């Protein structure tokens, strides 16, 4: 067991989404490629979890697996996903369908491609209300207007007849958020919700998501490559690398006491306000590994500055070490263990919410 | 939408002018004196001169073209040599027959093609998907005259189930017409059906893999609503383009099919006109088919805009 829940503090709310030892594979059973491995996390009611990692690290695949939306070639080959205590693998296709939208909803990255280009905003928004919830057209229309108001779209009634391409990027993302919350989901999954937007709009959208989460009491899973986004919104953070969680814990712990070399490297790659503007950022050399040819031992070892011979041989476990408070680290070297740790400098956030 | 239709309609005008110019040039580049054909070799020089004047052949090329246009506007396509009737009459009496056959074929090809493509796309890589690929390949590589002959052999001569020639026989009721239509329609539709099925399958697969279909799924929309209300409408523009192109091919395919089945349409008339060097009829037929082609494309453009609201802006 290596879930965040193992050493849960008393303050964490009851779980709504539990993922344990999840593995997602593609290809035939004989030559399968695992893009997600042993991923475990728990999201409590109303809590926000940030999943952070570079593109291709398996964070989106994890959430698609949770939603049951993996493409036909992918599958969950091990592990469990539980929603409100119910194992999702036991659900019929029909039950799973009605869970989507109402239990869990998705906001994806690029609102232009995530909205149907040939349907008006109103038609798309109202579709599940009319066809699955038995609302009248009038009631659905009123509800859509209410939702668009809620996400801060001015002149909501007039927007219902618009097509997605007729709105600005920020507006589209708001519409996408409105469609996602229309079923009052208990868990909102936001997959890079601000990546396609420019910086000022990013901050607005993040603030909106955060505010809606608090107002509607939703749990939030926010998937991002941007630690700044996580810093402002998430209570818990899981850092993923090459399909595995390499470090997880409370947002405070991850930012004040990052222990995995990868987390450290990610933090060093963020520009900081309190440093001279001409100071160069420290990029992480190399590329994430190809999941078809994963490196031996720790997947990060080819890029790690602190690599030891042992790292090439054995995959370290995700464990608490001496960090406490549910902070888990997957590193056999653990160079920043408390015994030999130096103080960490403050980290500036980009586009974060305070 | 209305201004879009108006703009597209205006754009067809130069195309139609181009077609008239091309058919006019056809009469200019054909060697030989038209009066030879019309009056026979033994005609007097006086009679020839008279006819030349009557036909406007004594004018300059530009003058002849303007006269040709003027005649076209008045519905005068010239005189058919083989049928000894005005070309417009020959074409008018046959246009409906060709239209009927082409319409039946495109409806059949579209309905079956879209259905088969959808059926295959829902389970890519499945047995039914692969079976469809084989059928499509077969229909695609089958020349229409050969398929027509095989159908005649099988259903007409061996099984003696269906008539193989003409439009009607005996007292000729509606059922009789349908029976006569069946084989030529199948022959004409086969190639288009395959092309439409293939495009539906690939276009639908694209759309089903798109973000917005995933979004719809993530909101709890059921699978059949996804296919019919989210995926198919967005896959349609590509399919409609192919259907439009197929309608053009059907018009030319009609020449072959109508000849094989002796279907009294424009295609058969064109075939006869070509074998007897009936230039005015060839000209009229080409003009008619070309204008039909332009009108089809015009209609396709409008349908395209209907399915893809972004196009209206362009």
From TrEMBL, chain A:
Gene Ontology CC annotation, any one: plasma membrane
Record's keyword terms, sorted: ATP-binding, Cell membrane, Membrane, Nucleotide-binding, Transport
Major localization class: membrane
Domain called ABC transporter: residue spans: 17-267
Protein location: Cell inner membrane
Record carries keyword Plastid: no
GO molecular function, one term: ATP binding
PANTHER family named among the record's database cross-references: DIPEPTIDE TRANSPORT ATP-BINDING PROTEIN DPPD, OLIGOPEPTIDE TRANSPORT ATP-BINDING PROTEIN APPD
Family named by the database record: Belongs to the ABC transporter superfamily.
Protein name as annotated: ABC transporter ATP-binding protein
UniProtKB/TrEMBL annotation, chain B:
Pfam families: BPD_transp_1 (PF00528), BPD_transp_1_N (PF19300)
GO cellular component, one term: plasma membrane
UniProt keyword list: Cell membrane, Membrane, Transmembrane, Transmembrane helix, Transport
Residue ranges annotated for the ABC transmembrane type-1 domain, each copy included: 95-304
Signal peptide: none
PROSITE patterns with a match to the protein in the record: ABC_TM1
Location of the protein in the cell: Cell membrane
UniProt membrane topology term: Multi-pass membrane protein
Domain of life: Bacteria
Keyword RNA-binding found: no
Ranges annotated as spanning the membrane: 12-30, 99-122, 134-157, 177-197, 224-243, 249-274, 286-307
Gene Ontology biological process terms in this record: transmembrane transport
Classification via InterPro entries: BPD_transp_1_N, MetI-like, MetI-like_sf
Family (UniProt): Belongs to the binding-protein-dependent transport system permease family.
Name the record gives this protein: ABC transporter permease
Phylogenetic lineage: Bacteria, Pseudomonadati, Pseudomonadota, Alphaproteobacteria, Hyphomicrobiales
């Amino acid at each position: 067991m290596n879930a965040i829940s193992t050493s849960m503090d008393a303050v964490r709310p009851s779980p709504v989404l539990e993922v344990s030892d999840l593995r997602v594979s593609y290809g035939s059973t004989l030559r399968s490629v695992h893009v997600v491995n042993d991923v475990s996390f728990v999201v409590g009611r109303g809590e926000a979890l940030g999943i952070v990692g570079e593109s291709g690290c398996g964070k989106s695949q994890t959430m698609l697996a949770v939603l049951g939306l993996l493409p036909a070639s992918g599958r969950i080959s091990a592990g469990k996903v539980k929603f409100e205590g119910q194992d999702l693998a036991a659900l019929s296709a029909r039950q799973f369908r009605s869970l989507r939208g109402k239990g869990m909803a998705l906001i994806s990255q690029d609102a232009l491609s995530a909205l149907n280009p040939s349907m008006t905003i109103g038609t798309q928004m109202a579709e599940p209300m009319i066809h699955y919830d038995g609302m009248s057209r009038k009631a659905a229309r009123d509800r859509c207007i209410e939702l668009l108001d809620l996400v801060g779209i001015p002149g909501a009634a007039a927007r219902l007849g618009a097509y997605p391409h007729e709105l600005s990027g920020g507006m589209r993302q708001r519409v996408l958020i409105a469609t996602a919350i229309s079923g009052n989901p208990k868990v909102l999954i936001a997959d890079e919700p601000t990546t396609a937007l420019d910086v000022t709009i990013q901050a607005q959208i993040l603030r909106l998501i955060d505010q809606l989460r608090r107002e509607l009491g939703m749990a939030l899973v926010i998937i991002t490559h941007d630690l700044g986004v996580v810093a402002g919104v998430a209570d818990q953070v899981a850092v993923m690398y090459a399909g595995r969680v390499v470090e997880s814990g409370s947002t405070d712990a991850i930012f004040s006491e990052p222990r995995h070399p990868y987390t450290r490297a990610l933090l060093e790659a963020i520009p900081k306000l309190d440093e001279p503007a001409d100071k160069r950022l420290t990029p992480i050399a190399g590329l994430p590994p190809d999941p078809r040819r994963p490196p031996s031992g720790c997947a990060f070892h080819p890029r790690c500055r602190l690599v030891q011979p042992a790292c090439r041989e054995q995959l370290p476990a995700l464990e608490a070490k001496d960090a406490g408070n549910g902070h888990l680290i997957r590193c056999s070297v653990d160079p920043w263990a408390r015994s030999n740790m130096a103080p960490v400098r403050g980290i500036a956030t980009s586009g974060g919410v305070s | 939408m209305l201004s879009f239709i108006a703009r597209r309609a205006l754009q067809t005008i130069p195309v139609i002018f181009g077609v008239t110019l091309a058919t006019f040039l056809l009469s200019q580049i054909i060697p030989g004196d038209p009066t030879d054909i019309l009056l026979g070799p033994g005609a007097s020089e006086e009679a020839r001169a008279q006819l030349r004047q009557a036909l406007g052949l004594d004018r300059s090329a530009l003058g002849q073209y303007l006269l040709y246009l003027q005649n076209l506007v008045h519905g005068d396509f010239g005189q058919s040599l083989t049928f000894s009737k005005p070309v417009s009459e020959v074409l008018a009496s046959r246009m409906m027959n060709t239209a009927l056959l082409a319409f039946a074929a495109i409806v059949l090809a579209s309905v079956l093609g879209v259905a088969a493509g959808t059926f295959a796309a829902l389970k890519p890589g499945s047995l039914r998907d692969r079976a469809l690929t084989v059928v499509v390949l077969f229909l695609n590589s089958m020349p229409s005259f050969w398929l027509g002959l095989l159908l005649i052999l099988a259903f007409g001569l061996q099984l003696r189930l269906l008539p193989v020639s003409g439009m009607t026989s005996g007292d000729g009721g509606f059922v009789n017409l349908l029976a006569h239509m069946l084989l030529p329609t199948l022959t004409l539709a086969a190639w288009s059906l395959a092309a439409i099925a293939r495009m539906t399958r690939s276009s639908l697969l694209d759309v089903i893999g798109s973000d917005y279909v995933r979004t719809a799924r993530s909101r709890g929309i059921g699978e059949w609503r996804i296919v019919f209300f989210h995926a198919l409408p967005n896959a349609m523009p590509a399919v409609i383009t192919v259907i439009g192109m197929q309608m053009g091919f059907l018009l030319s395919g009609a020449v072959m099919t109508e000849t094989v089945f002796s279907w009294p349409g424009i295609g058969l008339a064109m075939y006869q006109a070509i074998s007897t060097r009936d230039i005015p009829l060839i000209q009229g037929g080409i003009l008619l088919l070309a204008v039909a082609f332009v009108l089809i494309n015009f209609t396709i453009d409008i349908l395209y805009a209907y399915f893809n609201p972004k196009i209206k802006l362009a």
